[in-house]
């Protein structure tokens, strides 16, 4: 995330009436609330990573990250603890991404194409990975290949994949965040995984002997 944007967020933390100082406790009872600086430092990178994958655009992701952090700082005094702080922040971030996308679509007068749900796997045998792609992220080139494959997913599949498989959201929460049914989430997630497998197979499948 751009450091200048991080500094801009930090300079506006006074708007939150100094939330999260020592003695303020997460109403969920799980942990103390973070300070504004901790929110920016510890949660900003994760918000940015999720936004960049969902939007496939670094500049847009920076804008959404800044907006998310500012929203969190403003709303922190009214945080009721119905969920843990990280879960609450994550929901704010997802909503910010979706709101940004809607505004951009309206500006561009563009309506995204919604492909039909496809639950069935593509035909033909599927060979095993040499290793799960997630285990190979230590390699910079491998990480680049995976990130590019995710960015090339159609938007409706990419959203579900990022939230469910990368961010670890349960299917029910993913469905609620994207205004989908749970079966639709499962269908799109399956399709996203198959598309990624097809894109990455030349790099990760075992060579047939």
Description:
The chain has helices spanning 3-11, 36-55, 58-75, 85-108, 140-151, 155-166, 171-178, 182-204. The protein is mainly α and 209 residues long. Helix 2 crosses helix 4 (85-108) and helix 3 (58-75) crosses helix 4 (85-108). The protein has 2 domains: 3-108, Orthogonal Bundle (Rna Polymerase Sigma Factor, Chain: A); 133-204, Winged helix-like DNA-binding domain superfamily/Winged helix DNA-binding domain (Arc Repressor Mutant, subunit A, Orthogonal Bundle). It is globular and about 50 Å long. Helices cover 60% and strands 0% of the residues. The chain is built from 8 helices and no strands.
Structure in a nutshell:
This protein is mainly α and 209 residues long. It folds into two domains: 3-108, Rna Polymerase Sigma Factor, Chain: A; 133-204, Winged helix-like DNA-binding domain superfamily/Winged helix DNA-binding domain (Arc Repressor Mutant, subunit A, Orthogonal Bundle).
Structure keywords:
single chain, 209 residues, mainly alpha, Rna Polymerase Sigma Factor, Chain: A, Arc Repressor Mutant, subunit A, 2 domains, 60% helix
CATH architecture descriptor of the largest domain: Orthogonal Bundle
Q: Give the count of structural domains.
A: 2
Beta-strand fraction estimate: under 5%
Sequence of secondary-structure elements: HHHHHHHH
Tell me the overall shape: globular
What multimeric state do the chains show?
single chain
Number of helices: 8
Radius of gyration: 19 Å
**Helicity level, as a percent range?**
55-70%
What is the first-to-last residue Cα distance? 44 Å
What class, by secondary structure content?
mainly alpha
Average pLDDT over all residues = 78
Uncertain stretches: 13-23, 118-126
Biggest sheet, in brief?
none
């Amino acid at each position: 995330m751009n450091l200048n944007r991080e500094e801009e967020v930090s300079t506006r933390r006074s708007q939150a009436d100094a939330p999260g100082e020592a003695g303020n406790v997460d109403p969920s009872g799980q942990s103390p609330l973070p300070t504004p600086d901790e929110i920016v430092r510890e949660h900003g990178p994760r918000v940015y990573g999720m936004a960049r994958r969902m939007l496939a655009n670094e500049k847009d992701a920076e804008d959404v990250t800044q907006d998310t952090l500012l929203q969190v700082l403003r709303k922190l005094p009214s945080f009721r603890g119905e969920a843990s702080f990280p879960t609450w922040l994550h929901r704010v971030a997802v909503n910010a991404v979706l709101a940004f996308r809607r505004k951009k679509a309206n500006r561009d007068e563009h309506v995204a194409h919604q492909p039909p749900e496809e639950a069935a796997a593509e035909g033909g045998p599927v060979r095993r990975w040499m290793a799960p792609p997630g285990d190979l992220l230590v390699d910079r080139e491998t990480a680049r290949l995976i990130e590019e494959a995710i960015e090339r997913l159609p938007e409706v599949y990419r959203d579900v994949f990022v939230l469910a498989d990368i961010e670890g959201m349960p299917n029910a929460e993913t469905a609620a965040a994207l205004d989908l049914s749970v079966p639709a989430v499962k269908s799109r997630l399956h399709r996203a995984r198959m598309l990624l497998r097809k894109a990455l197979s030349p790099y990760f499948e075992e060579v047939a002997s």
